[in-house]
Amino acid sequence: MSLAALTAIYFVHLAAAMSPGPAVLLAARTSLREGFGRGVWLAVGIGLGAVIWAAAALFGLALVFKVAPALLTALKIAGAAYLLWLAYKMWRHAGDPMDQHMPDLPRTRSAPRLVWLGISTQLANPKPAVFFGTIFLTFIPPSAPGWAYAAILGIVMFNDTGWNVLVARIFSLEKTRAAYLNLKSVIERVFGGLLALLGLKLALT
Questions:
Q1: Pairwise CA distance, residues 128 & 136, whole Å
Q2: Which residue of 22, 133, 138, 195 has the fewest C-beta atoms within 10 A of its own C-beta?
Q3: Phi, psi at residue 187, to the nearest 5°?
Q4: Transmembrane stretches, by residue range (predicted)?
Q5: d(Cα 188, Cα 18) in Å, to the nearest integer?
Q6: Which helix (H) or strand (E) holds 134?
Q7: Which of these, 159, 200, 197, 134, lies nearest to 19 by C-alpha position?
Q8: Domain count within the chain
Q9: How far apart are CA 77 and CA 75, in angstroms?
Q10: What residues have CB less than 8 Å from 166, skipping those under 6 apart?
Q11: Tens-level pLDDT at each residue, the chain (205 residues)
Q12: Cβ-based neighbours of 78, under 8 Å, separated by 6 or more
């Protein structure tokens, strides 16, 4: 597996990790209410949850590809359509205010409890399942070596954990949080454009 392929996986997953969703909102809310340290533990759980989804997709569908190679083509079409749809949604709603409403959370929680909350939030969210089961796999050749699988899971852990640690840091600081919210439309349009380009590339290759 080439460095270019791993780089493509890195960026397409980073864009997915950064897209607004329950995990990002929970990281933001936890840091606002409980501080940066607690947000970091939650981010670790979010990363682990993403790794579970990615591992299930990698090792489950790799066997399916051997039995039904035509499924890869179908996944590419579905993945490209999903990328373009997600890009459209991000671009269209880039100017919408970020919904910060979350259920009330207990103020005192242990690190293991926060990690588990992150994992369970990811596992209960259908978006990672769709992403890892379609788009993610279409960037990975069925004959990828074992070391590539380990590297890919490392990328997933790094991206999901790293982004949510950054979110935790941003939302634990009032001034930085305000600046981030002011740039929300720009950030979402940039990543919406990136997702659209990746979707077109996927559909045409």
A1: 10
A2: 22
A3: -60, -45
A4: 43-63, 70-88, 146-166
A5: 9
A6: none
A7: 159
A8: 1
A9: 5
A10: none
A11: 678 778 888 888 888 888 777 788 788 878 877 788 889 999 999 999 999 988 888 877 556 656 666 766 776 777 677 778 777 876 877 776 655 544 444 555 688 889 998 898 887 766 777 777 777 777 777 677 778 888 989 999 999 999 999 999 988 887 776 776 677 777 678 777 877 887 777 677 6
A12: 134
Q: Which two tokens stand for residue 177?
A: 């949080």
Structure token pair of residue 72: 């890869």
Q: How many residues comprise the chain?
A: 205
User: Residue 189 corresponds to which tokens in the numbers above?
Assistant: 């349009």
The whole-angstrom separation of Cα 79 and Cα 101 is 30
Task: List the domain range (segments joined by +) for residue 68.
Answer: 3-204
CB 125 within 8 A of CB 27: no
